[in-house]
């Protein structure tokens, strides 16, 4: 672990410190992104610390979910992750240091006694204070179970210059003496965070404003240890579209849900960066631009509102810019998840279809919907409406087009468009007399792009085979 005094320490070090008690929440993902962008914009380090001191609620599955989410978002730490529980001895060492310097004391009250005294203090409108604050324990006392409390300074306010919230002030009389070691010797959150941030060389603590009150307690611990406080930046939480706190009723909350809903990671990075932060009126920007532009001065104080329409707009932009082969692989995964059995030519047809459908899709789920026609197994089922379109004069016309296409060697979409146009002119009909019947034969009622694009996506052999099958069914 890097020491803050190490001359090789970069000027800026940020960290994302999730608790592994569940999935990676969308709010946590944005916090990780803000930390990542702030560090990268300044050639600094972005670190990850897993705050797993709550042993009853921390799970291996949750740890995996967090790292899977960060990996999908492509937010990779610059060093190996730190696991807080493994550093408990270091936390106890610092607690003992605070005891030795008089900044902490041993409290021998039982949980029941503490509760009773706390209730009495509340009823009297004062802050709870343990009678052990100014009592020296005896040798016999030291053999009894006890907690260790931080002895807060009295008489002076606690002031934090927050990079987002501005100057924040707390009266010390409103803060009680924080437990820093439990009776079983386990370090508590606020002590562990301070020690770990210091030892990791963290210069900027960027986190949700639900941690703002912790900044007061943690600042006092920094001061007692003679350590330099990091710059605190507490960002507003994410609310639902209705302005209420984000919950299940608003839809997806976990990062993996957004992946499953067909959003691209670069789109999520773009959208999350803009959720509560602004660079002028820019809505769509690259990772490079985000790293160049991001600054805490652009973070607003009001809660950001999740907007699924805007997210879909951002995602459609990045789908249009994505490589076709990458989109084809992602779309194939959607088809497989939907139970499709992979055929020998499916991947090739999906890839050929991508340029023709990507401009119309907002998610990879929509890409799957729009490319389902490519994966249909021959012979396609033709419904009554399709049979009607392929019968009589219309069917004869499609037969002539099939014969003409059978002699056509260039299966390029532009050449196909010209050929279809020429055929319609020779038949002296508008394309409206050709398109619906061709779509029935080639897509079997599924959504598909323009006929020339459908032919190009399916390929010559598959297209002619589907036309033959369809005409055969109407004989």
Overview of the structural elements:
By secondary structure, the chain is mostly helical. Helix content is 46%, strand content 10%. The strands form five sheets. The chain has a three-stranded parallel sheet. A three-stranded antiparallel sheet has the order 4-5-8. A two-stranded antiparallel ribbon has the order 6-7. A hairpin with a 3-residue loop joins β6 and β7. The longest helix has 15 residues, at 26-40.
- Structural category is mainly alpha
Query: What is the overall pLDDT average?
Result: 94
Q: Into which percent range does the helicity of residues fall?
A: 40-55%
Gross morphology: elongated
Q: Roughly what fraction of the amino acids lie in strands?
A: 5-15%
Task: Give the low-confidence spans.
Answer: 2-7
Distance from first to last alpha carbon: 77 Å
This entry's quaternary arrangement is single chain
Biggest beta sheet attributes = 3 strands, parallel
What is the structure about, briefly put?
This protein has 475 residues and is mainly alpha-helical. The chain is built from 19 helices and 12 strands. Strands 1-2-3 form a 3-stranded parallel beta sheet. Strands 4-5-8 form a 3-stranded antiparallel beta sheet. The chain has a two-stranded antiparallel ribbon with strand order 6-7.
Keywords:
475 residues, disordered N terminus, elongated, 3-stranded antiparallel beta sheet, 46% helix
Helix and strand arrangement:
Layout: E1 13-16, H1 26-40, E2 45-50, H2 60-73, E3 82-83, H3 88-100, E4 104-107, H4 111-123, E5 147-150, E6 158-162, E7 166-170, E8 179-181, H5 189-199, E9 204-208, H6 212-225, E10 231-235, E11 238-239, H7 255-260, H8 265-274, H9 287-293, E12 304-305, H10 308-321, H11 324-337, H12 346-357, H13 364-371, H14 384-389, H15 392-406, H16 413-427, H17 435-443, H18 451-458, H19 460-473
Helix pairs in contact: 3-5, 5-6, 8-10, 11-12, 11-13, 12-18, 15-19, 16-18, 17-19, 18-19
